[in-house]
Amino acid sequence: MDKIQLQSEIQYKAVRSSGAGGQNVNKVSSKVVLSFDLKNTKGLNEEQKQLVTTQLQTRLTADGILNLSCDEDRSQLRNKELVTKRFFELVKKALIVPKERKPTKVPKGVIRKRIKDKKSASEVKKNRRKPDF
Description:
GO terms for molecular function: peptidyl-tRNA hydrolase activity. By secondary structure, the protein is an alpha+beta fold. The protein contains four helices and three strands. The longest helix has 21 residues.
C-alpha cells in the first residue's frame, strides 16, 4: 500500500451539511465527501485491490468508487482530516487477511462421556419398568 499515491488519488468535495452551526450552516459548505476510485488506483497492487473490494463491497458504488463523508465538525479542514484518517483506517483494516479456520474434531473424552450418560439414562429407564418374571 503506497500511502502517498493513495493520498494523491483521493478527491474531496465540500457540501452543505446539516447540524450545528446556526445560520452559518446555510452559507458554509463544511461537510466533506471523499471519493476514491478503487478500480483505477495505482497505490494498491491487484491482489490488494481484490482484497479491499471484497472487504468493502457494501460501501462501493457500481463503478467501484468508495465514498466517505464527514460532517462532525464545523470546520471544513477538520472534517477533511477526519475523513482522510477514517479512509486510511478503513483501507488498512480491509487489507488484513483473515486467518483460515482449522476445523476441530470432537474430543474422544466428550464422546465417551456422552455415551456413558446415554447408558446411565437407559439404565434408569429400564429400572422404571415393571419386572419381567
